[in-house]
Amino acid sequence: MAVRLAARVALLVLTFSSSLFAQGLADDQTRRQALDLYRMGQEYMAAERFELAAQSYMAAIDKDPLLSVARYQLGQAYMNLKRYGSAIQAYKGCLDAMARLHALEESSKFQVDKMREEEIRELRVEINQVKGVSSLKREVLEQRLHALESQRADYRAEFHPPAFVLLALGSAYFRNGELAPAEEQWEAAVIADPKYGEAHNNLAVIYMMTKRKKEAEEAVKAAEKSGFRVNPQLKSDIQSMPKESS
To answer: Which DSSP symbol is given to 210?
Structure first.
């Protein structure tokens, strides 16, 4: 099952990437303008002005279509606006940009490394800003930082979608009422990172909703083993499910 799912995710990324494959790297001036617009979006997000944040991120993407942090944050803004279909497209675009950067790395390694360093620097700034405010948000940001840092390790390796984007994409599908693709993305997330507790927790919810008690119990165990705190009500609801017929 894991092999089949990984193959489907790889096909999904190739499908996403077709729209951006002709995109090249932005020049330094355009990249700086895109980052300025991205930072403006971050300020709007912090002020919970999500519509203006989305507009800023879209302007940044218009300047630099391969600015993956802007595409991811656009998805976050749409999630807050409850525009889940738009969030799905934004997260797909994020995967698209990441895959395209990976493909460009062999021929333009210096420029791609520079772009990655800029995105990593933006995340580190954001992590420092939430220090002492929200340990959960800081943990999520650190997961994103680790994923970006790992992508620069070996450009010759096959591109693997990072777990945090797959988790977000699954959440957008779930909120949009599309359970099957939500499950697929969350399963892909735990393949990408077997210790991703939040993804295991979300799968437990899906399994419960689709009356798969044994799988739900296993997902809860995996989530807790990773250190994720599972809601006691979810555990109680799963425990009270009738046994599956053999």
So the answer is: T
